[in-house]
Amino acid sequence: MSPFNTPILPIKKADGSYQLVHDLREINKRTVAHFPVVANPYTLLSRLGPKKQYYSVIDLKDAFWACPLDEKSKDYFAFEWEDPVTHRRQQLRWTVLPQGFTESPNLFGQALEQILQEYQTGEGVTLIQYVDDLLIAGETEDKVRAESIRLLNFLSAKELKVSKAKLQFIEEEVKYLGHYLRKGEKKIDPERVKGILSIPPPKSKKQIRQLLSLMGYCRQWIKNYSTKVKFLYEKLSQGGLVKWDEKDDKHLKALQHDLVNAPVLSLPDLKRPFYLFVNTDSGTVYRVLTQEWAGKKKPVGYLSKLLDPVSRGWPTCLQALVACALLVEEANKITFNGELRVLSPHNIRGILQQKAEKWITDARLLKYEGILLDSPKLTLEVRALQNPAQFLYGKPSEDGLAHECLSTIEEQTKIRPDLDEEELEEGDKLFVDGSSRVINEKRVSGYAIVAGERLAVIESGPLSGFWSAQACELYAVLRALQLLKDKSGTIYTDSKYAYEIIHTFGKIWEERELINSQGKNLIHQDLIRKLLKALRGPKKMAVVHLKGHQKGLDFKSRGNNAADQEARRAALQTSQSTPRKIRRLKEKSVRLAEGICKRYIALLCKKKRK
After folding, report:
1. Cys bridge to 346: 167, 320, 498, 561, which one at CB 3.0-4.6 A?
2. Any residues with CB less than 8 A from the CB of 260 and at least 6 apart, and which?
3. What is the pLDDT of residues 511-557, one digit of tens each?
4. Do the beta carbons of residue 450 and residue 559 sit within 8 Å?
């Protein structure tokens, strides 16, 4: 007898009959699953090619039962059985891999793969395995017939059974892994589409995830899929219960319409070059992968992705760079790193080599360069195409569509066109710095502005003890800009944060009303707003970044160190400059806390006396 026992449940089948199913959910919960070494159906069919015209599909019968269970594991799969005639109850155990066990497909798939390593396919024929489903494809009927018979005999010799009811033997159109294959093309199984259409609007997050899982299997056929399911992902990120309205119904119906009218896709030919059109729209990456046949571009697959929150905050041309890298990675799963020509309205190579370092971290930059520049079979081309339809069905009028990415990035990121990153020959030279540190368990903050060859202190003072170092540095730059109003001059700062706001992120943040890419308010929002406004005050100006704490006697090092020392000195006055309102609030809080403690102690004493 086994100490374990799980129930047998009757499950109604489509034909009205019942099937007994062993409920192994509790066993599955306690099973540490192995990594699933199973072929990816998304890329599996890329091995076929469009020249294969005949197919055979072989489905193994009771496949899992061909794998014996280890003696130590048999007790886990025990169940109670009542004889329908004698009504005698007894406990039985599985001696082979049971259906319903979470590891059964993975374990059997690996076992069958090892068996098939002994089998050698004939010339001009391809054999594909996905768990217990086998597909044979060939260019001629005779070759597929001979290979199918040979494979069936091989499986029989290995004591594996084949389901005669599910056998598709030498046909021009077959159903395999939820696809219909015919003459080198694939389309979605209408039964799968019908099943998805029958699902009612989701009322919970679990149902939304189930819908996304089903729709995701069909994403290759849906143009700009990520944009169209974005509303579902937004509902998953919202707190509380799911609220479904008429607008959501409209989005869902549009998605279902695209699914019903899904195009037929060509199976890829790995010996021919691929063409990948890439563009972005509203933070979504979309593309169409094609190959040329008889002078026409035939779609191999559509793919789209949502950019990450950081990338969505970048200029459009930089978003296109990320889009290109993401989609080339996805395309390589289908092309198997074959020859690929990427077409985009953006100068991807120029952006990557000249403008990317301002926005992209070294780790990301290295990754993108490896994908886009170091691939010998990858070609980047600039085309004035704006959407996949123009790419597939002919060239549009290119008047006014072309743009210069490098200058566009400059226009999108500069607060004013004459804002310089190099020092001006004329005008004032101002060194600024801010300081915020903890002394005797108390934070002190301050700022300073130093000017001229003599490095005279123009302005300095304490700031609120609640301010961070970044806030102090921003305030120092703000005051310098206000001093340069209607004048010309150069501001030197060692704050990378302030420098990047002025030269890189400021204009985009301003256009988004100081909301970040995740829809939240920026830190130091008020200071940034004043800073961006003050940038338009000077007649002519430059903001230059310096490395902090440099040892040297040159003008820039001395100026930066002088501003740093003065800011530290000014910060020591913080304790004396705490606003009166804040001091009163602190004193009131202390008195309130003392009163609560006294009342609590008095209450405890009263209870003890009782």
Report:
1. 320
2. 193, 197
3. 777 776 666 788 888 999 999 999 999 999 999 999 988 888 889 99
4. yes
Which residues form the domain of 607? 582-610
Which residue, of 183, 207, 230, is where some domain finishes? 183
Burial per residue of 275-309, b for 16 or more beta-carbon CB atoms within 10 angstroms, e otherwise: bbbbbbeebbbbbbbbbeeeeebbbbbbbbbbbee
Q: Answer yes or no: pTM beyond 0.85.
A: no
Per-residue model confidence (pLDDT) at position 39: 78
- Residue of 455, 488, 480, 458 whose CA lies nearest to 557: 455
Domain co-membership, 317 together with 218: no
In this structure, are 509 and 609 located in the same domain?
Answer: no
CA angle 158–162–167, rounded 5-degree value: 140
Largest CA distance in the chain: 109
Report residue 462: phi and psi, to 5°. -80, 155
Q: Are 478 and 485 in contact, with CB atoms under 8 Å apart?
A: no
Q: Are residues 596 and 557 in the same domain?
A: no
Higher-confidence residue of 41 and 435: namely: 435
User: How far apart are the C-alpha atoms of 83 and 88, rounded to whole Å?
Assistant: 5
Do residues 396 and 295 both lie within one domain?
yes
Rounded to whole angstroms, what are the CA distances from 515 to 141, 505, 523, 526? 63, 12, 10, 12
Give the rounded percent of residues in the chain with a pLDDT score beyond 70: 92
